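INPUT
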Amino acid sequence: MVGSVVDVSLMDPCEKVEALPREFDPKEISCPITSEANGVVEENGKREIVLGRNVHTMCFTIDEPDADDEITGEKEAYMASVLARYRKSLVERTKHHLGYPYNLDFDYGALGQLQHFSINNLGDPFIESNYGVHSRQFEVGVLDWFARLWELEKDEYWGYITNCGTEGNLHGILVGREVFPDGILYASKESHYSVFKAARMYRMECVKVGTLISGEIDCADFADKLQLNKDKPAIINVNIGTTVKGAVDDLDTVIKTLQENGFTDRFYIHCDGALFGLMMPFVKRAPKVTFKKPIGSVSVSGHKFVGCPMPCGVQITRLQHINALSRNVEYLASRDATIMGSRNGHAPIFLWYTLNRKGYRGFQKEVQKCLRNAHYLKDHLRAAGISAMLNELSSTVVFERPKDEEFIRRWQLACEGNIAHIVVMPNVNIEKLDNFLNELVQKRASWYQDEHIQPPCVAAEIGEDNCDCVLHKN
Amino acid sequence: MVGSVVDVSLMDPCEKVEALPREFDPKEISCPITSEANGVVEENGKREIVLGRNVHTMCFTIDEPDADDEITGEKEAYMASVLARYRKSLVERTKHHLGYPYNLDFDYGALGQLQHFSINNLGDPFIESNYGVHSRQFEVGVLDWFARLWELEKDEYWGYITNCGTEGNLHGILVGREVFPDGILYASKESHYSVFKAARMYRMECVKVGTLISGEIDCADFADKLQLNKDKPAIINVNIGTTVKGAVDDLDTVIKTLQENGFTDRFYIHCDGALFGLMMPFVKRAPKVTFKKPIGSVSVSGHKFVGCPMPCGVQITRLQHINALSRNVEYLASRDATIMGSRNGHAPIFLWYTLNRKGYRGFQKEVQKCLRNAHYLKDHLRAAGISAMLNELSSTVVFERPKDEEFIRRWQLACEGNIAHIVVMPNVNIEKLDNFLNELVQKRASWYQDEHIQPPCVAAEIGEDNCDCVLHKN
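OUTPUT
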């Protein structure tokens, strides 16, 4: 049951200086989880996931300094060597990265001076703490910017800078539960896993709703599920860009479905805008994410479209909900409505810096560029006879999973079953895409030179129209 | 009900360039919360906390760049000016900080080169992700170090680097609840508020246990409470250093109490070692925190004793619990047993760097220095006729709350009712303490020059022996 364990002590002693971060075995990484090496045990046909220590992990050990280290400088030299090699590997990996929605193109050189300080935004951004080394004044500036973007007045919103998209979802769903303690959580099956994690953590009843081929929530199925649970309020997670297909749930149809099924005000909507929450406002024809509609909260990641050295995010909700929440927390003796309490004070400054430099107009330009480049990628894949799909409002190109795991690893593609995806971010330019396309077309010629080996059919995942398998190609 | 709101647009337009982070009003900050300005409304004698937007917050606004900004360079100049002033205020505040247990003495210059990368440790540290820009190899090195410190074998532990002490508590208590779904959470009333937040989030029954004057859990009261709930398993939060008094719950007595009351194995112990989890192993005579005792998890903060630019922490638990947990998470289709999912990849490198440089011996020396300096501070306070207490195993000096709020603000002291505390960290040297003592003694002479105004009695908080008020002084 317990996975394999690394005995680092068996490693070549030289290795701790020499080794680069181990290149991983893609069999271990792609979802869905299908191999035992990956921590999954098939037992009586039932998949069981075994967490932790399932994979041989490369590790930079920490050794007790020798008594004479300060004189010999050996320790310093060892550490400098590890760091230099690590840095080199990061450069290499950043260059070839395509699979995750992280904007790796940023320059925060001007902020390097702040790394010497232990900046901690304890608790509520709007209530001062007596720890003086904080960055609340940057945080509130960033929050105001996002509240304006999503059209909520300054005196009507509350929010904070989170550690990541997951914390935003955890917070939004918690607020929903506090507003409707017996509410049922509805989320499409293509929602981020943190949504289902929240349901489990919070002991909430959770109903999974089906999706369309595009990855959007299927509102017909949603209506059916609502009908089965008419007596309880509904808490809904609406995806503004799903993880795999970049699908945007139709907020207007979700609201209409609620109302048509008798949920006139017994509902709370959390919008998981991890990636597209910041892009959608700049896409023409996109259904608008705005607090002028009856939504309760929106979260977005800061390290994705904006770009940031570490994960972070923004959570905005209605002040009235937080005040309602606060009436119940007296026994906490705390004015802290955040999940984490202590919070990274550097992240708000990174975000403040980029938002100030780029502004709404800057982001609009970047969004347009990403959508253009995504279309370029999709069109060139299809022109090369490769199955591919691109949702209208998305920069996530879903395509046939490359046959060679080395290739997947090299480009750090996220895969699920027979499909892979590339999220076209501001740092992904035409040149990078051309390099990728050329390499893929060339490799593919060798993978499929034997006529008996055919590319997979992906009609089930992305629809017949987008599938170029031997059965569906026109 | 809704607190006051800042209309930033009303600010002097020059202010956005000129203003330093506003000095806060200490009336707003000290616990317990007692004033309306502080977001608390007394209604029918019932205290109600109103969260968010209760305090006028200084904010650095984000303005849309002008079309010609790139040519004029005005925007860059504005931002550089804000950052330079902010940096100056951080230097000043770092210099005078005494109230929070953060080691502000670190030099991570060698790691500045890594700020250019978006380092993200997605999910389980022991399972590779296909996002290549991670620092798992550092993270696992740090985790191994802590597992060794707390005596858990490499193949028997699981853990991860968290965003802060709160995340460690949230995780430890969640694991406890998954092991005993109908367990009751017991925590002393001086536990960190995140423990009670967890109970609320997780919908757990929670029983508060009384404390001794020292701040330690009162095991007689604990026994009584256990007797009232004999039918349900116990999940216990044990404090290895409480927030206010730095009190260390006696782990051995807690275990004995459980066993004497019939809880032979129906219990789960989480040790909240936010600060002292890393110091205790180096204190002679301290009851040992070790997995050789029947504990389930230990958490510690990384930005406290180690020192780190941003909050972070370490969570170590038994692998068997995580595997038990995993059997229940199939529907998550996730191998992620962390709370946060996306995690800051820089924090592990900071910790790795310091642990490698200092080693166990280095920390031992620092712990001894802190305890010595804490005794120095306590002795000098008492010699000056000032009420003060120092727990035997602690570096947190609790003393009479200074009368002048300006003084509290200047030294960033955390206060609660009539007491304040100073946490003596490695960056707090004798010189800094002497400066503080001299200033306090001098100020005090003026605060209490009028005989009718007397220092407060703090016997209720720290005991008669430690109280130097007019009634209790010998």
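end of record. Chain A has 13 helices and 13 strands.
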